Amino acid sequence: MEVDKGKGEAEETRKVAEADRDTVTLKSSDGKLFEVSKEAAARLSTVLAGMIAGGSIDDNGTDLKQIGSEALENVVDYCNKHANSIPSAALISSSISFNTAPFKEPEEWERKFVDRLSHDALFDLVEAANFLGMERLLDVTCHKISEMMKGKSPDQIREVFNIKNDYTKEELEEIRQELAWAFYDD
Amino acid sequence: MKSRWFEIAALSGALVVGFHILFQRLKQQRTPDRKGSVLHAQAPDRLLDTEASPPLQLPLDLLLEILARSDPATVARCAATCRLLRRHVADPAFLRRLRAAAAITTSDHRFLIGLLYHRGRSSSHGDMGTRPPPLLKSSSGSLTNAVIASLSGELAGPDDPVASGGGLLVLRRGNKHYPTTTTLRVFDPVAGRGHVLPPRDIWDHLLLVMPDEDEPGALGGGGDINFKVFIADRDLRTQTYSSKAGAWGPVVRGNTTAACLRVPGDYELVQPWSPVVLGNVAHWLYHHGWDPGVYSILALGIIGIGKGQAAWIDVSRECHRRRRDTHREVCRELLLVSTSDDGELALLVWERPLKVSMWTMSSSSSSQRSWTRRVLIDRTAILGSVQPTCHPLWCQRVEFQWFAQGSGTVVFYMNSVGVVLLNLRTLEVRHLQRLPLELFDKVSPLCVYELDMVPLLLSLR
């Protein structure tokens, strides 16, 4: 798929103006514009940070053709909420040490943030977070989906993720025996 | 406009390229209308895997991201959904990730902790002695119930639990005062099966059991775990039993300097006897018999090329000086821990009047180690979480009992309170059970069992 056709040459001239603004404008696949604080975008997304540093941010809306407006709205919402909550370096740090773990538990507001999302919105958001290199948001959304899967049977998991069963009956029986400990709750 | 993408890629490095490629893949996989859900609208994506696979709701990479944050039972059920997931879940790199994550995430109790008591020293009636029933951390799920039943049955027998690791328990049968005549047995509470080890050539002064991740698979199918049992005597000769080989390996002495040839005769192993394992090296804490204030840590290579290699790490006298009771010779006011699953070695110390501090060692150079101290929990935090049956002033006796590395839990005993768990990651203090002091005196020491489900996934390979 081609990305971002037709925008272009004027970019260089905009770079100077860009540097002075404290927000960036992002454009979803369906053409909606969203503003987000430059500081938050750079802090939370490695991809946006790279684009800001490289001056490839478009004043009229940086095209993110891979992200739908609903997901992008959630991304921007998350960035704003994150800026308002206690900004802690520990949250985005990936160093393994005593209290700053690679997978940190979501905070209360983050839980609420993902709890209100539908399945589809959540899946879209997880992909957007991955695409934008938003480690913390990826953590929070993956954590939420992981919670959703807890206690689900293989059939239910297949349905949620659209997974096609390619095991034979005999193989399935064999797996069930091998992994009997995981099926105790059934 | 491709050029922009190249520009970004140049700026942000391969990361962006990775995302871009991933995204291209993703677009190909996605069904246009997700609400219709189970329609397999598009052809299998060859990029995703060499074998044909159905279009997933989420790209495989993201599914694995999610699974890396899931509990092992969920991971196992996902492996039962399709071949592609099974293959990726059984990948050693994924299992390592899962283990690291499981050791860090705290919201679920992925590990069950059971405190398994030894029988008391032979009682006056000459019977087997008393043993309190195992204390098991309550946790829902029928797997844990099955494991508890299995452990309880095992402990009703004559054997004493002596070590645990990787979800396995080592039990010793026979008179522990004549260690070479005793028999070791490895018990897997999940499978409910035991494995008696043949006689060993050296005394097991030090002992540890670990899952054999190089040799996964089955003893006899049915999800049995392959394991290794490592032992070392006071001359620091080592021997390893491999369940795969079904035999003890040769007695090996590491290529160490003369100073580390043996455990000096006056060194006493400080309880608990379970080591802190970091990478390929296990650590035990020793106390110098002739001086109550001197402690050393033995670092011993347990697998790989460094196997049998030993080094002594001196513990700063500062750690000792702040102890609550500096006069007691053999004390359990010091405990060796690790800061996270693959983290740093650290030492916990009970300090006056009632607080726990953690000493970490800078590992910059072996000759000039420096120790730094920070207070983990203080008197208020401790007394706020436990309800002593008498005035706090009487809570004089406090002893560390165990460090459960899988869950990062410190077990300690407190007079007039009982058994208390301290989670090193959350610093949550949890009162487990009151235990009368008389009983405690008789049954010490104990062994802690942690359920580790990650090795169980090895049977998928």
UniProtKB/TrEMBL annotation, chain A:
Pfam families the UniProt entry points to: Skp1, Skp1_POZ
InterPro entries named among the record's database cross-references: SKP1, SKP1-like, SKP1-like_dim_sf, SKP1/BTB/POZ_sf, Skp1_comp_dimer, Skp1_comp_POZ
Domain SKP1 component dimerisation, chain residue ranges per copy: 136-182
Pathway named in the protein's UniProt entry: Protein modification; protein ubiquitination
Region (Disordered): 1-21
UniProt keywords, alphabetically: Ubl conjugation pathway
Domain of life, per lineage: Eukaryota
Domain SKP1 component POZ: 23-84
GO biological process: jasmonic acid mediated signaling pathway; protein ubiquitination; ubiquitin-dependent protein catabolic process
Purpose: Involved in ubiquitination and subsequent proteasomal degradation of target proteins. Together with CUL1, RBX1 and a F-box protein, it forms a SCF E3 ubiquitin ligase complex. The functional specificity of this complex depends on the type of F-box protein. In the SCF complex, it serves as an adapter that links the F-box protein to CUL1.
Family listed: Belongs to the SKP1 family.
Quaternary structure annotation from Swiss-Prot or TrEMBL: Part of a SCF (SKP1-cullin-F-box) protein ligase complex.
Name this polypeptide is given: SKP1-like protein
Organism: Digitaria exilis
From TrEMBL, chain B:
F-box domain span: 58-98
Domain of life: Eukaryota
InterPro entries: DUF7595, F-box-like_dom_sf, F-box_dom
One Pfam family linked to the record: DUF7595
Transmembrane stretches, start-end: none
PANTHER family: F-BOX DOMAIN CONTAINING PROTEIN, OS08G0203800 PROTEIN-RELATED
Protein name according to UniProt: F-box domain-containing protein
Organism: Digitaria exilis
Lineage, opening ranks: Eukaryota, Viridiplantae, Streptophyta, Embryophyta, Tracheophyta
